[in-house]
Amino acid sequence: MNKVTTLHEFIMDRQADFPFASGELSRLLSDIAVASKVVSKDVRRAGLLDNFLGKQGSINIQGEEQQKLDVIADNQFINMFKTGGEVCGIASEENDEFMPFEGEFSQNGKYVVLFDPLDGSTNIDVNVSIGTIFSIYRRQSKVGTPATLEDMMQSGAKQIAAGYVLYGSSTMMVYTTGKGVNGFTLDPYIGEFCLSHPDMRMPEMGRIYAMNEGNVNICDPGIKEYIESKCQQILEGASRPYSGRYIGSLVADFHRNMIKGGIYIYPSTTVDPEGKLRLLYECNPLAFIAEQAGGLATTGHERIMDIEPTRLHQRVPYFVGSKKMVEQAMSYLKG
Ligand code: AHG
Ligand code: MN
Ligand code: MN
Fold first, then answer.
1. How many angstroms does the Cα of residue 206 sit away from the middle of ligand 1?
2. Contact, 304 vs 287, CB < 8 A?
3. What's the rounded mean pLDDT across residues 153-172?
4. Does the beta carbon of 249 lie inside 6 Å of ligand 1?
5. Which residues contact 45 (CB under 8 A, 6 or more apart)?
6. Which residues make up the environment of ion ligand 3, defined by Cβ < 5 Å?
7. Domains in the chain and their CATH numbers?
């Protein structure tokens, strides 16, 4: 049997890759792994515990009903960031405003984290894969002062690291620091994330498309055409058309496409002209990972990571996945 590489060992081995590495980013990535192990444990036992499943009874800034586990996961990550000392402030999908941390200890932190604590909320109560998505930036404001809105509102191209933790049939952490993408599976017997998917590459072409097709008549007619031509007819030289797979947890659809090849589409619709997905918590981090793995992420007209954010909870149309599939889908767009 080969020697197992734990996430912690891997992070330490790669520390020299970071510019001006002083260990803080390594510690931050390790902290995220620890918080996600706690969340994973909660997710795995949620049906057995009082007060873990169901609605929280509150609506977040996105106008969406919060689930109890959304709030539990949010607090778990925030507490870890507050007590780690590497992070001066955070912004989360579940909180209306960004959160500058108080006190010298945190204000000396060089980084901010933007995250979606639990992606796929509607799947929590029905035991379907969900995940955490995170994005790390170097602060713009001066070290030793409170974090500012400007620290949070950076384009995706400025990300220092990004990743996700998928609470699926196994728990996996996948992340990039801009030097490729690596995936780690949580070994429940030893409680460690272990390297299971080194140097992940997204196939250039795949056969899976993921879109909520309930929206097909309220979005760019080119998308309907794309689905009809590519997904509902036998393609030349192929034995069957593309397959539709839509989990309803972006993070899980994305992960499957990372491995098998595919495209995920959440377009602008007449109901949600900006689309549904959040630029800072969902689209940018997964765009960074997609690009690092050889894939693409675009609004259909613009590279996701080039967008200069104008609002914290900004939404954007999203096409992400295998390079050739994203290019193909874009060529059908009219608007
Ligand atoms: P969240 O649970 O963090 O609010 O995100 C849900 C997102 C995404 O994960 C998923 O793919 C999409 O919303 C599903 O939206 P529809 O129900 O409109 O298809
Ligand atoms: Mn989400
Ligand atoms: Mn969420």
1. 22
2. yes
3. 97
4. yes
5. 52
6. 93, 116, 119
7. 7-197 (3.30.540.10), 208-332 (3.40.190.80)
